[in-house]
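Workshop exercise sheet. Pairs work together: one partner reads the sequence aloud, the other fills in the structure field after running the prediction. Swap roles for the next sheet.
Pair: D.N. / O.F.
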Amino acid sequence: PGTPEIYTLSLPDALPNLDSLQARAYVKLGHIYQKQQAYPAAIATYYTLRGLTPDSFIPYKELANCFQKTGMNLEAIGYYRLALEKNPLDITTYALAGNLMIQEDELKEAIEMLRRGLNIDSTLVNLKKLMGLAYYKKKSYHKAIGVFEDMLQNGDSSLFISKYMGLSLLAARIFNEAAGYLEFVVKDDTTNAENYYYLAVALNGDYQYKRSQFCFNKSLELLKPDPMLLSDIYLKMADNSRNLEQFNQALKEYDLAVKFNPTNLEAIFKKASTYDYLLKDKEMALKYYQIFMNKVETSMKNARESTKKINISYYSTAGRRIEKLREELHFEGKLKEKK
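Structure field:
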């Protein structure tokens, strides 16, 4: 699930807090590097800026932003803390730090960080959303409900609030109310299988079994990919496995390709060729070449299928290999003739 939108420090916000022209130039340069995604250069710039302005929170906050953008969340949290030591009234830093703490599952620390921000301004929507989310993830469902309820009473009926209010009520087993909020969420996005699932659970808990069953089925329907697509995916995965010399894995993936599309002749042929050329298993290669040829003959009864599904080179190769393998196995005394 998503998190509330959080805003970082903008250039106009930063500049008035710096006295020297040189320091302001370093802020501008760092922002240029960030826009270019040249984060090591930006970080080096802000380290220099920190030396020029040791009492300013800006270099610490900008360093935190850079570390966050490169996925180094723990380092970012540390620098946000340092920024708040320099400027404990910078409200957006509480939201930025709290958001990362939630992502890192540091929920107790996130709640304390967000509480400090709300003590400065209790009306900030982003901080409240994050507080509710942190309580939900911490499984303090009634506290989460209290936060979201307060926001709803103050006119915030956003999709995020409705979803997490519904999920908190569901987790607290207040099924009827949960269903109401989750119905709203489903109506907003009828393509989300997870939303249908949560609504189905709520309706089940509220004894609305028929409606619950409908939502469970919708969830399954949305989760179920097209079998033809699955077959093609497994075929391509098997080709990758062959290229990686993971031949047994490739065999399993060719089987899955055929499972989801029994007319996937390419998968059958490639399974035979894997046994033939890569695993040097003549008996298994012969078996699957013959399965391939049998399916080809069945498909050829339908002219339209034959043109779409049969690669002529596969067909001719399989015929030649069957003849050659039968000959080799015969001389080795391993050919099993059909009775």
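Discussion prompt: The longest helix spans residues 312-332. What would you look at next?
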